[in-house]
Amino acid sequence: MDQTRKKISNLLRRAGVQRPPVPVEKIAELLGLDVRYSPSADDVSGALIRKGKELIIGVNSYHHPNRQRFTIAHEIAHFVMHKAWHLHVDEDFCINRDGSNGREEVEANRFAAELLMPVELIQADVARFNNVDDSAVSWLAGRYRVSTQAMQIRLTNLGYIAPF
Fold first, then answer.
1. Do the Cβ atoms of 47 and 57 come closer than 8 Å?
2. What is the pLDDT of residues 138-160, one digit of tens each?
């Protein structure tokens, strides 16, 4: 995870991120990725596509904006960490038409969580609370523009709340 955290810190620094929410579209642009929104089947979250010299992240426009942000972060992860792709379609982040495996999907999800909810920013924000309860989780989720479930998982993984 240290290498992943270093890559993310570098991306955040390049994008000038000092507070949430993390501008994932700007980060995609810095990497040369064009983010495009299009209606898709509900079970398709996004895709990473190389079309000639174009690098595209396709995002399901029907999904909630927080889900779209996670999709963009997830596809950035595939681009940064899993270079051996040509077409990568994410159907609920688990079934892939490019032959990638479950390990890569877990890595991409972890990368996305780390990118959207960087540990340094989370630590500073959690310090505002005496107790990280449901209202704190809800406030943090809104601040970071992620789902409450994503924030709960992140806070659990960082040891701020007990596993649910």
1. yes
2. 999 999 999 999 999 999 999 99
Structure-model confidence comparison of residues 49 and 137, the more confident one: 137
Query: In whole angstroms, what is the distance from residue 52 CA to residue 107 CA?
Result: 27
161 to each of 22, 124, 144, 154, how far by Cα in Å? 23, 16, 17, 9
> Which CATH number is associated with domain 2-116?
1.10.10.2910
At residue 92's C-alpha, the angle toward residues 1 and 76, to 5°, is: 45
Beta strands at 87-90 and 54-60: parallel, antiparallel or unpaired: unpaired
Return the bridge partners of 47, or none: 58, 89
Give 70 or 4, the one with higher predicted confidence: 70
C-alpha closest to that of 71 among 48, 97, 96:
48
Tokens of 20: 């949430």
pLDDT digits (tens, 9 = 90+) for 50-86: 888 889 999 999 999 999 999 999 999 999 988 655 5
Please give the Cα distance from 38 to 4 (Å, whole number). Answer: 29
Q: DSSP letters along 105-149, please?
A: HHHHHHHHHHHHS-HHHHHHHHTT-SS--HHHHHHHHHHHT--HH
